[in-house]
Here is the input.
Amino acid sequence: MRKKIVAGNWKMNTTVAEGVQLAKNIVEKVKEIPSDVTLVVAPPFTHLVSVANEIKGTDIQLSAQNCANQPKGAFTGEVAAAMLKDAGCAYTILGHSERREYYGETSATLVEKVNLAFASGLKVIFCVGEKLDERNAGKHFEVVGKQIEEVLFTLSEEQMANVVIAYEPVWAIGTGVTATSEQAQEIHAFIRKFVADKFGAKVAENTTILYGGSCKPSNAKELFACKDIDGGLIGGASLKAEDFVAIAKSY
Ligand code: PGA
Here is the structure.
């Protein structure tokens, strides 16, 4: 049985004190969430150790938002996967569209990062998604397929057990425009089939596929009711404990 996950991507928001308070507020409400839903929070690097302390003893998991493509050494400004594991992370997000778009992250770099994350014992939330012009040109299957093929298809079946895929159409991220449940289900089913064709039906059935992009309490229920949507990667709405928990309660 694949895991249901609701993950909060805090992006570059909150001070340490605000982040700790947000984590506290989430911990207070975690009992309201169905027991088969795992909550993940992904604060900025500077907050990880403090947030790890807040969520200790709960089932909430900690994630980073990125990691370096080098294991250690003279790489000023970078944070290694092993450091993230040491800080208490269970996951790291990789390949978020903002990293691809603003920091030139390529599939080649992502292959290095994914492997370093695994070598450090982290699981990976791997983001894919098409831009608006690609969707309008009917190229979304092709684009998402290529993003998956270039990175995830280099992995072994065993490694795939440590991958969560997040489908995030770029046109829906932070825009208030959400993919309809039909659009989301259609591409989630495509992703699962694509994974099945490469790794077999069992791996595909066990792969958690999250939807991300303006997911909020008012639309989560409809999205999460879809057969191939196993939860969400939540940006803006994860910065309010009430909304984040309400989304997780939508199951
Ligand atoms: P959003 O961001 O929920 O603010 O649209 C989602 C994401 O980028 O992970």
